[in-house]
Amino acid sequence: xxxxxxxxxxxxxxxxxxxxxxxxxxxxxxxxxxxxxxxxxxxxxxxxxxxxxxxxxxxxxxxxxxxxxxxxxxxxxxxxxxxxxxxxxxxxxxxxxxxxxxxxxxxxxxxxxxxxxxxxxxxxxxxxxxxxxxxxxxxxxxxxxxxxxxxxxxxxxxxxxxxxxxxxxxxxxxxxxxxxxxxxxxxxxxxxxxxxxxxxxxxxxxxxxxxxxxxxxxxxxxxxxxxxxxxxxxxxxxxxxxxxxxxxxxxxxxxxxxxxxxxxxxxxxxxxxxxxxxxxx
Length: 281
Fold this sequence. Notes:
By secondary structure, this protein is α+β, with helices and mostly antiparallel strands.
């Protein structure tokens, strides 16, 4: 009879997610609203001053801005309503980014979820910063965080090529092979970016979280560390506490996991999403 597998416990998701207190939300919303009121007042004063200077032959605000070569910001002086809309959106966009970082939610997201989040923030119709919107947004994120975290593991697994015998189509083995990881030419090895970089970032993120550790900052993630190692051309083997990566001239990388317990946890997640795959193992 096959061994019954238990999905990975969601504790790993709560340990690294700080709750944003109601006091902090109130302070953020109040500060944001006060700042916007003051900015609106300044723009209104600028409009009055512009009318005055224009009436005495000193031209309008847009003209003196151009004289100072403020080409990128001079459009703010054209219409107060347009300026406030853009300024409000930019301030809210920055606050949303900061909230995501401080809450720990961004660390749980795979590359796909992070790209979607940041792309949504670039739109002109992002939700305004308010207590209701913050609570609603983070409630939704909290409810889906386990799904988002596990999707990163599933995407890494699905991204493996089954042309290699080491890549088992049923589970993560001790070693996996990633094709197109590096490029080799007369100057030596070069790390390939794009999809492979995202794949390694997701792998690094999930190994740390499954081990109960915080996710490394972007500048210290696995893809950055591997890129630095390759650029120094010391050897074709990279080592850290979780992985040994050997890369070859044909471009492939052989990743050997050092922690069997983490392999088991990753396979628990695969079994949860594809219960028939590991049923007979």
